[in-house]
Amino acid sequence: MEGMIRIMVADDHAVVRHGLTQILEKNRDMKIVAEHKNGVDALNWLLNHDCDIALIDISMPGMNGIDLLRQLQKVKPKLPVLIISAYPEDQYAVRLIKTGAAGYLNKECAPEEVMNAVHCILDGKRYISPAVAEMLANELSIPAGKLPHETLSNREYQIFLLLASAKTVAEIADTLKLSVKTISTYRSRVLEKMSLHNNAELMRYAVDRHLM
Fold it and tell me: What is the C-alpha to C-alpha distance for residues 176 and 165, in angstroms, rounded to an integer?
């Protein structure tokens, strides 16, 4: 086992854990040393054992991957964590990388990309896909001194306020005489620009800043 890269996998689906094992152990220098189906077991194991990299899913019972990542930032800040999730990159990637994840992969990615990401992270780098790099660049381009909602276009701001007032995408589409698909695209853009995750956060943001 000397020189072996030790990997822990946490995912509540056995087929995913098996798939990751199949992919990674094709490299003879890599070994899955532990598999867990929930965040609590993964954290307990990591408190008592060492590994070189942890591959963690977001949606798990007991403790989800986001909370597990936050805990690991406190107790094992040097442990690289690669998030592998069914959620699209635009929903979680930037948020989790800013929280401390070393990389983010969608489960629909090719097996070679998983291997590339692990190698990249073990070389001391962060694994950031072109799509996530663009999202991070967009965040960095926010002018100094501007609040997130001040970076929205007039139409985006209009839709932001409608979403924050608890209107559905369908209701907004009807009000503005636009397609549901168009409103959904605007919603995704607004959430991305404001670094928010869902309508509830939009509502909280609007209320906190007395925009409603």
Answer: 15
Q: What is the dihedral of CA 200, 203, 209, 211, to 10 degrees?
A: 170
pTM of the model: 0.66
Tell which phi-psi region holds residue 124, choosing left (phi > 0), alpha (psi between -120 and 50) or beta: left
The C-alpha atoms of residue 150 and residue 119 are separated, in whole angstroms, by 40
Q: Is the pLDDT of residue 117 over 80?
A: yes
Question: Mean per-residue pLDDT for 168-178?
Answer: 92
In this structure, the answer to whether residues 52 and 88 fall within a common structural domain is: yes
The residue that leads in pLDDT, 87 or 165, is 165
Nearest to 70 by CA among 41, 43, 91, 52: 43
* 137: in domain: no
